[in-house]
Design brief:
Oligomer: single chain
Number of strands: 23
Shape: elongated
Number of helices: 14
Helix content: 25-40%
Largest sheet: 6 strands, mixed
Distance between the termini: 57 Å
Radius of gyration: 25 Å
Structural class: alpha+beta
């Protein structure tokens, strides 16, 4: 049998080889699904094509003090391997989805592991992560010519780095003693193409298992928001700490990104992350945060009154945004054939009508001044998932997106006095389905009556 101290962490392997496809390699995702992802990638490659992916490197804050490790999302998507200093090479063989999977990782080293923690090692790369061939990452140079020398085309997004520290990245940057075998030299003889667009298309449509992970993250995070709204807060720092702690307490592995916790006028700064100001009784607080589960994220924003009760102007502006969000969420279904860009246009039209009714002068650049960001983005393994993916194409079943209208009113004479200085955003994570949207974050309350009821009278 095999044993894992934590899902996604190093494995130890017994002499008896397990049935690896039957296990969840990472939370909720089976080894079989990872193998299918590699097969799907291979089906997109030309005959004898090769894809090369590198794991993230450990980054250092200062000296030997390192930041928390976070795996490269493309690498993780195809391997489930959650350690640094690793390289995956996926070569297409004769059949449509047939492929050969090479996984180079750090070798077991008891002395180093005493300091840095357990490593999976090369045997686990074969027995658990289902590589056809494995080897010590330190010796990858010796295998590159054999593996990719006859490739018709090589697909990779790896690039040289002036601060390269891993054996592979140093190899790529041509700073090795044996430059004749360095990757950059080998690649000179073959056609090299980017891998990003192929992987974006694969990652953009989520499997049932991926959606289940995102629902777990959304449920745990949504409950944390609702718990936070029940309580009175006096500082952004305390609310920030509560959310991050409660995400984990509710089952998430970590925060998905640096939270925004912005009281009063701070909410008009879209990516305000200082989170160190006081919260005043008559202000609103905007919190944009979420947890992750099995490396899959959720993204939530809620805005609520610090006192527990909205003033009439706060309620009016909030309800205008909430009505817009409800309308836009209802359009996140494949049968509606809307793109994110089209839904953004609908949000603009809806907000403009509501604001005219509240006495705003919406002429000129008024709307882009107070609604300066897009309505939504793709989510998955990353908060802004599949970078570069078009928002102009119609939404398809299995895509996951955010819907997050917001208004940020400057404290100037151009705007109605009752609303100046307010910043309000309401955001949920949504899974597009054929005929209706699946709200992944529904546990975070957002109706005015529900928010006010949490604090009672």
């Amino acid at each position: 049998m095999l044993e894992s101290k934590r899902p996604g962490r190093p494995y130890t392997v017994s002499p008896v080889r397990p049935k690896p496809f039957l296990i969840d390699l990472t939370p909720g995702i089976s080894a079989l699904e990872y193998a299918q992802r590699r097969s799907n990638l291979a089906s997109k490659l030309p005959k004898n094509g090769v894809a090369i992916l590198a794991a993230s490197e450990l980054k250092y804050r200062s000296g030997p003090v390192f930041y928390e490790f976070h795996q490269d999302s493309d690498f993780f998507y195809l391997t489930g391997f959650n350690e640094p200093e690793a390289v995956a090479i996926i070569g297409k063989s004769a059949g449509e989805g047939d492929h050969i999977f090479h996984l180079f990782v750090r070798a077991k080293d008891p002395k180093v592991e005493q300091w840095e923690g357990s490593r999976s090692g090369t045997q686990a790369a074969l027995d658990v992560f289902n590589a056809d061939e494995s080897g010590d990452i330190k010796n990858i140079e010796n295998s590159l010519s054999r593996i990719i020398g006859d490739a018709s085309e090589v697909f990779t997004d790896a690039s040289p780095s002036a601060t390269a520290t891993s054996p592979f990245s140093r190899l790529f940057s041509n700073r090795t003693p044996s430059k004749s075998n360095a990757l950059s030299t080998i690649l000179e003889s073959v056609t090299v193409k980017p891998l990003r667009s192929i992987l974006n298309d694969l990652r953009n449509i989520k499997s049932d298992a991926e959606i289940a992970n995102m629902r777990k993250a959304g449920q745990a995070s949504g409950r944390a928001f609702t718990e936070a709204m029940r309580q009175a807060w006096t500082t952004e720092k305390d609310l920030n700490a509560f959310l991050e702690y409660t995400f984990k307490r509710n089952g998430c592995d970590a925060s998905a990104y640096v939270p925004v916790v912005a009281g009063g006028k701070n909410a008009s700064q879209i990516h305000y992350v200082r989170n160190d100001d006081v919260l005043l009784e008559n202000d609103l607080v905007l919190a944009d945060a979420g947890g992750e589960y099995g490396n899959y994220i959720t993204d939530i924003t809620r805005t609520w009154p610090i006192s527990g009760h909205f003033t009439p102007p706060q309620k009016d502006l909030y309800n205008a945004i909430l009505a817009t969000q409800r309308k836009c969420i209802s359009l996140c279904r494949a049968s509606a054939s809307n793109s994110l860009d089209r839904i953004h246009q609908i949000a603009e039209e809806t907000l403009k009508d509501s604001l005219n009714g509240l006495g705003f002068d919406m002429s000129g650049n008024a709307l882009e001044t107070i609604f300066p960001h897009h309505l939504g983005h793709y989510i998955g393994l990353d908060v802004h998932d599949t970078p570069g993916q078009s928002r102009q194409a119609p939404l398809r079943a299995g895509q996951c997106v955010t819907v997050e209208p917001g208004l940020y009113i400057p404290d100037t004479d151009r705007w109605p006095a009752a609303f100046r200085g307010m910043g309000i955003r309401i955001e949920d994570s949504i899974c597009v389905q054929e005929d209706h949207p699946l709200v992944l974050t529904t546990e975070a309350v957002k109706e005015v009556e529900d928010i006010e009821a949490l604090r009672g009278s």
